What we know:
The protein is α/β, with parallel strands linked by helices.
Amino acid sequence: MVDVSRSKTAPGTASPSTPGPGTSGAPVDLAAKAQAAFEGVRAAYLAGRTRPLAWRTAQLRGVEALVREGEAELLAAMAEDFGKPRVEAWLADLAPVAAEAAHVRRRLPRWVRPRPAWPGKANLPGWAFSVPEPLGAVLVLSPWNYPVQLALNPLVAAVAAGNAVVLKPSELTPATSAALARLVPRYLDPEAVRVLEGGPEVASALLAQPFDHVFFTGSTRVGRVVMEAAARHLASVTLELGGKSPVLVARDADLEVAARRVAWGKLLNAGQTCIAPDYALVERAVLPAFVEHLVTAMGQLQGPDPAAGATRIVNDRHVERLAGLLASAEGTVVVGGEVDRERRLVAPTVVLDPDPGSPLMEEEIFGPILPVLGVADLEEAVAFVRARPKPLALYLFTNDRRVEQRVLEATTSGGVCVNHTMVHFLAPELPFGGVGASGTGAYHGRAGFEELSHRRSVVRRPTRPDLPLTYPPFDDRKERWLRRLL
């Protein structure tokens, strides 16, 4: 979900920027700004400012107010950056943030309570419990494709857990980045939550600081760089990456509904979504009918004027990347294939049976192009998926629970939707995250609170009785009693 600005984006998501391993070569004032931002939020955390429940609740209310009162400014910024239609931008970027902040705020008083645990025989009489405590200073590197949601939802998790935060929005959506830089200090604590704008050099300068945790949404390639930088400080990481999320269509599926929902998932945000359907594997018995329904659905979702109000590809480099993927695909272009470089538009495209070894099938597409491949049966589809890196999402269309169970047991992915696409992202208490090359860690709801917390274990023992039995020197009699006791 993050896009690199100075080099080719790795297949999978949009990346905030391409941070280097350190700040060598970065201007002194830029390194100083990064250090000042880190030290400022770190000081706020160490002063205890972010720990009280009242502070956390106030920040969550601030996020809700920010997206509500700043709606017009944020929608205008996203329209300026890449032409996001107003309703789509509100639906995909603003509404999820408000819902997440409200959901977390209402449940936070319960989540912060100590959680009792069985102390074990050795600690009787005694009590055991765990307490969630903040990690400290958290760096959030956010992407361009959902520039509000993917900046503020991680922020919600971080402040709910009592952390101080530095947020770096993506430079590829400069209007939205500037809007967030104006709005965040207006609605949240400016001492403990700071926004630092800039490109790859800023990301590198921030990664050189000893943050306690780094939350990165972006490509797998850049995720490796972020993880390496965090390892220098032994900082924990949440990496929300991407990959090629497959669609499996069984012969018993409702093909019309399946095609419509796959088309919707692929065309939302012009395909620039980390969990967008990346390719479809369809049983050959129903392949012609599915493709026909798919072409119809794409035409209906575009409307009479495909260019009117369409989300643009974020920049010229990505347009050329998509054009290159199309050129290398082989297969048959069933619909679409046009590239409007001047307006940064790529027509919704279906490529039937492309070369499985082509870049179109090896790289995450991140655009409105859907390869569709015929398979003999679901077993062949499962084998195809298993032979590739673990995806962020997997979509299965079937009405047979036995098929569903087989696919769930035989594959691994960050998340799964059965008979729909992408909607698992909207479930407030489902952890959202990847596995393997598609990411590490998860957030949303309580999962985000736990991800950005350290669960501290506590055992409390009374001072009496203080049995001599447990202290050396040990003899045979003590050993016999200890063995009985434990």
